[in-house]
Design brief:
The structure holds three protein chains of three kinds. Chain A is α/β, with parallel strands linked by helices. Chain A is built from 22 helices and 26 strands. In chain B, strands 1-2 form a two-stranded antiparallel sheet. Chain B is globular, with a radius of gyration of 24 Å. Chain B is 70% helix and 1% strand. The chains are: A alpha/beta, B mainly alpha, C mainly alpha.
Chain lengths: 695, 397, 348
Amino acid sequence: MSKISYDGPILEIDQLSISFFTRLREIPAVMDFSVVVQPGEAVGLVGESGCGKSTVALGVMQDLGVNGHIVGGKIKFKGQDLGKMSAEQLRDIRGNEIAMIYQEPMASLNPAMKVGKQLIEVPIIHEGVSEKEALRRAKEVLIDVKLPDPERILQSYPHQLSGGQQQRIVIAMALMSKPSLLILDEPTTALDVTVEAAVVDLVKDLGKKYGTSMLFISHNLGLILETCDQICVMYSGEAVETGSISDVFDKMQHPYTQALFRSIPLPGADKNSRPLVAIPGNFPLPHERPSGCNFGPRCNYFKDGLCNTQAIPMNKIKGFERHFSRCSRIDEIDWDTPISNSSQFESLPPGDVVLKIDNLKKYYEVAANALFGSSGTYKTVKANETLSFEARESETLAIVGESGCGKSTFAKVLMGLETATDGGILLDNENIGSTPIEARDTQTVADIQMVFQNPFDTLNPSMTVGRQIVRALEVFKYGQSDDERNDRMLQLLDLVKLPRAFATRMPRQLSGGQKQRVGIARAFAGGARIVVADEPVSALDVSVQAAVTDLLMEIQRKEKTTLLFISHDLSIVRYLSDRVMVMYLGHVVELGTTDQVFSPPYHPYTEALLSAVPIADTSIEKKHIVLEGDIPSAMNPPSGCPFQTRCRWKKDVPGSLCETEVPPIKTLDGGHQIKCHLVKSKLEKMEPVIKIAAE
Amino acid sequence: MDLLTWSDIIIQIVLRLGPVWVALVILFLVSFRFKRSLGLYGKLFDSTIGMIGFAIVMFWVFAGFFAGALDWITTHDPLAQFSGMKNKVPGTPLRGAEDGDFSHFLLGGDHLARDVFSRMIAGSTIVIIIAPMATLFAFMVGITLGVPAGYYGGRLDTTISFIANLILAFPVILLFYLLVTPEIRLTGLPQYMAVVLFLFPLIFFTVLVNSRFHIVPTKRNALLGIGLAVLGILYISLINEAGSKISFLSSIDLFDVDAGLLTVFVSVVFVNAPTVFRIVRGLTMDIKTRDYVAAAQTRGEGAWYIMLWEILPNARGPLIVDFCLRIGYTTILLGTLGFFGLGLAPEDPNWGATINDGRKLLSIYPHPALVPSIALLSLVLGLNLLADGLREESLKD
Amino acid sequence: MALFILRRIAIMLFTSLCLTFVVFFLTNLYPNLEKMAKTQGNFRMNDEAVLSFLENRGYLLPLPVKYGEWLGVYPGYVIEGSDGEIRGRCFKSDQIPSEAPRYCGILQGYWGYSTRFKSDVWGIVTTRLGLTGILMFWVMALMVPSALIIGILAGMREGSRTDRSLSTFSIVTTATPEYVSGVILIAVFASSAFGLKWFKGTATAAMDNPNLENFFLPVVTIAIYGMGYIARMTRASMAEVMTAQYIRTARLKGVSFPNIVLKHALRNALIAPFTVIMLQFPWLLNGVVIVETLFNYKGFGWALVQAAGNNDIELLLGVSVVSVFVVLVTQLISDIGYVYLNPRISVT
C-alpha cells in the first residue's frame, strides 16, 4: 500500500462534534472543534480529564466504539474525508498513515505475543513485505528508539521489559511504517520523570528525523511546551484557545488559559509571597454544562447577559496569525494585569523538633521465586537505608523520588504499618520505630495521620462521608456523645471548605478534589500533629490541585502541623516545602532547605531530576540532561553508589570508588547534605540547571 | 366428565395460579414505582433479562408460599392416592369426584395415582425454603472463614484453603452418598456437623457487633445481649432433637426440624461453603489493597473491623450475584439428592424424587417426570437470569 | 519446574490420604457396618450375630489399624472366629493360609475385595473406568469445541444479536442439570408419547458396541450441562480481552477483524476457560453418575452408586481414590497448562 501524496495540511479537523449515546440521553463529548496540523508540525492538545481531548484522537482514528458517533463536522486527512471512508480504506490508513501511542505501554502491547511479532505485523499488513525484510526493518527501528540488544528484545514478551522499554517498543511500532501523522495520547504519564524526559527527547528527535506530524495530547503544559509548535487548549468539550506556543503561553487571550497558568506552580511562585490562584468551582459534567460559555460559572470576567446567552464561536485574535480564542470579551479584558493577590502570608517560623528519624533501616526478605513458593532462597530488599533527619513543628518537609526509592516504605514504617529493621523514629523523644500500630496508644496514632494519593480509593465507597469522619473521631476517643462527635465532624467539613450537606453523601457523589478534602478532614480528626501526604494532588486535575494544595497550607498554618509531603513533582515541591529530601533506591542522596536543593551544588541525581521536570514557562532555560537507562530494581541494586549506573559525573571521581563504596554523607554550608563521592571543588563548579532567561 | 383439551388445561392452570399473578403484578408495580430509590434492587428493573429472571423466581416463591402457608393453588392432597388415576394423562377427570373436590387432574396422575400438578406446586415449597436458607448458611461459613484467610494470608490462609480444597476434591455425589444415609443419621454425625456449622452465624454476629461498637461498651453489650439471646434460642432449637444424640435444654427447644431435612441441609451447606470461601477470599485479597483499608489501618482500627466493615460491604456486588447463582446450584443439588432417593422421605413431593419416580415409565408416560423437570429447569433458569441481570446492572455503576 | 511438580505430587498424596481416611471413617461407622453385615449375611440377624459376624471379619479392630491394613503398612488381620474358622485379610480362597503374605494393601497393589460384586476391587474399578472413559471421551469431544466456539462467537462482539442469542442458550443449558435434560431428551427422542423414536433411551447396549443410536443421548445429556458453563466463561474472557488496550492497538495498526480475533485475542482469551475446562472433570463425575443411572450404562458412576448403596467399603474406597486422583491430576494439569498458556508467569 503506497502512501497518499498530498502537499496540503496533513490533518484538518473542521467543526467536529462527537457525542456518546446512552440509553438515557446523548452526551456531547466534543463540540465545534477545529484544528489544522501542517506537515512536520507538532500540535499539542491540552486540557483536564474529561475535556474530550482523547475523544478527538479516537475520532481521528474513526474508532469511537458502538456508542460514539460523529454528529457534525469533518475530519480530513491529506484532503480526504475520513468519515466517508469504507472500513477497508480505513484499515489501510490506520497504522500505515496514522499511528497512535497510548498512555499505558504495558496495556497496549499484547501480553501473549513476542515483541518482534507485534512489530513485523505492521509492514507485513501494509506493505506486504516478507517476514525477513520486516524483521530487518524492526531491528532498524529498535536501534532508532535506542533500545540496547535488539535481537534479544525482539524475542522477548512485553512483561519481560521495563516500563520505559515498553514505551519505546510502542513508539517503534508506530514508526514501523513511517506514518505521516503520529497521535500521542498522554504517552509518558505512566512513566517516571527521568524516564519520561528520555522518551520525550526521543519522540522529538524521531519526529524530526522521519518528518512526521504529531498530535500530542497531554494535561501537562510543560510537556507541550517542550514538544510542540502549536497548542490547542480544551475545556469541557470545546477548544477555547488555539495558537502558536509562544502566543498562547505569553499572550493568552482566554480566561481559562490564564487561570490555568496561574494555578500551576511555576518557578517564582511561593506559598507565602505569591500563592497559587485556584480556579473556583468544579469542572462541569458533560450533561450539566451551562448555557453560553462553558467556563462562565468559574470565570473572573463573567458578565451576565453576554457570556451565558448563546454559544460562543472561536474568534480570531487581531494581529496574529492562527491565534483564536473562544471568549466574547477578548477586547474588553486587560490581559496584562498582574495577578491581584490579596492573600499573602507571613512565613511561619519552624518550631521545636517534633519528629526525629535516627539511622532508620527497613529491609524486607523476599522469596526469590514469587509464584511457586519458597524454594529456600531469599533476597533482602533494602527499602530504606540509614535515613536520618528531623522535622519541626509547622514545617513542610518534602520527600522526593521516583518509583522504588523507598518513600512509601518510609511512610509505612512511620505510620506503624511496618516496623523498622534498625534505628529509631522519635516522636517527642519517644522511640516508636519498632512499635506496630496495634501497640501504639491512641494519642500517638492520632498524632501521625496520612493523606492518600488516589482520591477514588481513599474513601470507603459504601459509607457516607460523615460516617467515615465520625468513625475516625470515635476511634480517636473524641468527645463523650454521638452529638458531640457529629458537631466536630461538621466543623471538620467547614475546615476543608465542604458544605455541611456533604455529611450524608456517599463518596461516589463527590468529585476527586472533594474526596481528597474529605480525606484531609479525616486525617485531621484526631488533631494530627504530623501529617504524611503521599502525592495528595498528583491524581487530581491541574485546576483542582492548586485548591487542595492551598487548603493543606492553610490548615498547616492554623494547626501548626508538620507536613511530610511525598512527591515526585519538583515544581510543587519547590512551591510549598521548606526543606527537601531527595531519595534514590532507598538512600537519601540529598537533604537541605528548598533553596539549597534547587540551586547548585547538586547531587548528580537531583541535577538530572531538575532537568527532567517540564516547566510551562517560555522564559525558563533548562540545561539538558538525559539519563541513560531505567531505574534499577530495588531487588537487585547496583554495587557501591546506588546512582552510579546512570551518573554523568562518574568520570570525575577517581578510580572505581563509585562502583565499590557507598558514598559518605558530605555536609556543606548551612547543613546541606549530599551523599556523593565528588570532591567539594567539583561540586562547587556545578552550574544551575534552571535559568530564567533575560527578557 | 370429559378429558380436558390442552387449551382448557392451560386456562385452568392459569386460573388456579390466580393469587400468584396478583402478587406478581403488585410486586412489579410497586418496584417500578420506587425503582430509583431502591439501590441495586431498583436497578434490576432497568434490565430486561434481570426482570424476566426475577419474575420467574418470584413466581415460584409466591406459588410455594401460597401452597405451603395458605394451602392455595394445589388442587389435591399431593400425598393422597386416588383410585383409578394411575398414570392418567393430563386433563383426566377425577373419578368419583365429590362436591368440593377439584374435578380434574390438570397435569395427570403419576404411577401411584397422585396428582402431578399438586405435587409440582408442593415441591416448590420445599425448594424455596431450603435452597435460599442453605445458601445463606453456606455464605455465613464462607464469609467468616474467607475474609480472615484473604486478609491475613500466610499460614491461616494455607490451612483453611487446604481444607476447602479437600472438600472440593470430593466428588459431590460420593459425599452425599456417605453423609445422607439413614445409617449416618443414627450416628448423629449430621447433628454434630450442624452444631459446628450453625455456630458460624453466631460468631459472625458477635464479631460484627463487637468490632464496630467496642468503643462504646454499653451499646455493644445491649446489642450483643439481645442478638445473641434470639440467635442462641434459634440455634439450640435447630440442633436439638428429642431422642437423638443431641438433646439438651429441651425446655427451650422451640421447634423440631425433620432429621432427614436437617441432614440434607447440613450436607448442602457443607458442599457449598468451600466455594463461597474461595470467592470471598479472592475478593478480600483484592479489596485489602485499597487506600481506605490503609486509612483504617493507620487510624489503628482492629483487624475485624477492617474485615467486616471496610472490606465486606464493598464485596457485596459480586457476592449478591453469586448468591443468586448459588441458590440455583443448590436447587440442582437438592434435585440430585432427591433423584438418588437420599435424604427426604420417599413419598415427599420434592422435584428430584418425583423425576426419579417418573423416569421408570418415561417412554410410555412422560408427563409425571416432565412436569417437575420443567419446573426445576424454570426456577434455576430464572435464578441464572436474575444473577445475570444483577451482574450487568452492578457493573454499570 | 520439577520441584514444583514434586511439591504438587506431595500435596496430592497428602490430600488423598486425608480424603480416603474420611471415607474410611464414614464407611466404618457402626450403623454402616451393621447394614453391610445384614446385606452380606441375612436381614434377620440379631445384634449378637451381627457383632460376631463383624468381629470374625476384622471389622471391629480399631480404625487406625484397619486403615493401616488397607494402606498396607500394617499386617493384615488373622482372626480365629467364634465359629472356629480362621479368617485373614490376606487369605485367598485357593491359598493355604500359612502361605498368605503378611501385608496386603494399596502399597502391595491389593485394593481389597468387593462385598457387592464378590470380586477384586482393582478389576472392577478398571473395567468400569474403561467404560466411563469412552463416555467421557465423547462428551469432551462434543462439549469442549462447541462450548469454545459458542463462547468466542458470543464474546467477540459483545452486545450483538449473536451474543444475545448464544448467551441465552448458554444460560438455559447451565440451568438444565443432567437429570432434567436426560428426562426431556428421552421423552422427546426416545418415547412413544412424542413418536420420535430416533434414539434409544437406554445405553446398556453401548457398553459392548457404542453407536450413534444408543450413545448419543447420554453423551449429549452430560455435554449440555457443562457446555453452557464453559461457553459463558469463554465469552466473559473473550469479551474482556476484546476491550483490552492491545486489541485497540492492533485495530489501529490496521489488523483485520478476523486476524484480531485469531491472532491477538484468542490465546489471551483461552487462559481463563482452560482452567475451567480442566476443573470440569471432577464435576463431570456427578453427571456421569446421574447419566449412567438414567441410561443404565454400567460404568464407574454406576459402580459408585452400587458400592455406596451396599456400603461396600473397599470398593467405595477404591472408587474414591480414583475420583480424588482424577480431580487432583486435572488440577495439576490445569496449573501447568495455565503457566504454559500465560507467558507472563514463568516457572524459573
